[in-house]
Amino acid sequence: MFNFRFDKRMIYILIGILVFASLVDYLNNPSALFNLLLSIPGVLVAITFHEFAHGFVAYKLGDNTAKNEGRLSLNPFDHLDPLGTAMMIFAGFGWGKPVNVNPRNYTRKISMEKGEAIVALAGPAMNFLLAFIFSIIYYSIYKFVGGEFLKSTVGGIVMLLISSTVVINMGLGIFNLIPLPPLDGSKIIMPFLSYNAKQWFKNNEQIFYIVFVLIWVTGIAGKIISPIIGAGTTGIMSLSKFIVGI
């Protein structure tokens, strides 16, 4: 019987090619390149806090693995995956360097499976929280500072940086909820599946990696996720605008 094993390195090779092609396009478009550079601080914030949240929640559940490996840190360089970061910059959604956890160390008050789901959910939840916080900051500046600051070059750049951070955090949070390995969503859904569904999911993990690559290469991921990110960003900005009182 033919046994196909998918080499995960193929993901990185294909995404690397896509990133390189995108970079060439940006170099030919100065204004797009400027907006790209403005997104970098938001990317660093989104990935750093996302991965920190995974490690912190695992630590609170009784697992010291992330702490022992120095991942309970807000230093971006402790959490960046080169290609995942590049995807965040060029596509608006990507990933950081995975935080290692050991579910066997979790408190016995919950099952290992539920513990894994909670730890996985912590990353996207942190991104949604950050998107909300930065949108509040955005409208607070607009309401309480306003005036000449908003008309200035510095003010314009600051507002672009903040709004970009909101969108990037929404993008990272929503992207990671997709229930495909290696994304967080694949762990979050596990407690809700039947035993047979779980076994089928685990036995066909290699197929899901192939699907993961295909939705990237064909552009399906962007077509599906971009409208969701747009709607999520609009919703959270509208809520923040209401709270600030604009």
How would you characterize the overall build of this protein?
- The protein is an all-alpha fold and 246 residues long.
- The protein has one domain (11-89, 100-244).
- It contains eleven helices and no strands.
- The chain has helices at 9-27, 30-60, 65-68, 82-91, 112-144, 147-151, 153-175, 185-188, 195-203, 205-217, 220-244.
- α5 (112-144) crosses α11 (220-244).
- The longest helix has 33 residues, at 112-144.
- It is globular and about 60 Å long.
- The termini are far apart.
- 31% of the residues are buried.
- The model is unreliable at 1-6 (pLDDT under 50).
- Described by its quaternary structure, the protein is single chain
Classify the helix fraction into a percent range: over 70%
Strand segment tally:
0
Give the overall shape. globular
Report how far the terminal alpha carbons are from each other.
Answer: 65 Å
Q: What number is the mean pLDDT?
A: 85
Q: Please, how many helices?
A: 11
Query: How much strand?
Result: under 5%
Largest sheet: none
Low-confidence stretches: 1-6
Computed CA radius of gyration, to the nearest angstrom: 19 Å
Number of domains: 1
Q: What class, by secondary structure content?
A: mainly alpha
User: Helix-strand pattern, N to C?
Assistant: HHHHHHHHHHH
Entry summary:
With 246 residues, this protein is mainly α. The chain is built from 11 helices and no strands.
